[in-house]
TrEMBL record:
PANTHER family, sorted: S-ADENOSYL-L-METHIONINE-DEPENDENT METHYLTRANSFERASES SUPERFAMILY PROTEIN, TRNA (MNM(5)S(2)U34)-METHYLTRANSFERASE, CHLOROPLASTIC
UniProt-listed SUPFAM superfamilies: S-adenosyl-L-methionine-dependent methyltransferases (SSF53335)
Pfam families referenced in this protein's UniProt entry, alphabetically: rRNA_methylase
GO MF terms, alphabetically ordered: methyltransferase activity
Gene source species: Jeotgalicoccus aerolatus
Designated name of the protein: rRNA methylase
Keywords annotated in UniProt: Methyltransferase, Transferase
Amino acid sequence: MFKKILPAGKDFIEEIVDPADTLIDATCGNGHDSAYLSALVPNGHVYSFDIQSQAIESAKNNYPKTNISFIHDGHENIGSHVKAPVKAGIFNLGYLPGGDKSITTAYQTTIAAINELFKLLTAGGRIIIVVYHGHDSGKIERDALLDYLTSWDQNQAQVLMYQYINQKNNAPFLLVIEKLR
């Protein structure tokens, strides 16, 4: 049986991560991905970003791990906060579950964040992007990301799309970027 989207995304991370690696949660939300990444790198570090102070505070309270830095800033500013080589990063696009649905990720800052994170990635490192496109801004972000990523140089990165094409209700899909050099 095929894996669902979120477990498949985790597999793409687990295949490459070592216990001392640096990882990025580009969309902290409630902190679930940050906690998951933290467990993968007990001797490493996780940097977790969100523009909503509510999300950062909730994540800090729910997951007070010592190897997670929760950063109240936009993911497009990853390069200002992280200087270490990064093995992997994850984005869950859309809005904060249980939060204000009018506050969403936007393609402009997401693309800027992907570019910043790609600069920090080690060769063989990966960026996992879960695209939720069941809302208006999600559709715009989806289209912009697909247009942008299809133009990437295949000698620099491989870009994979993992999607169920016969699902109703705009099921989320994965984009996986692997840095080649």
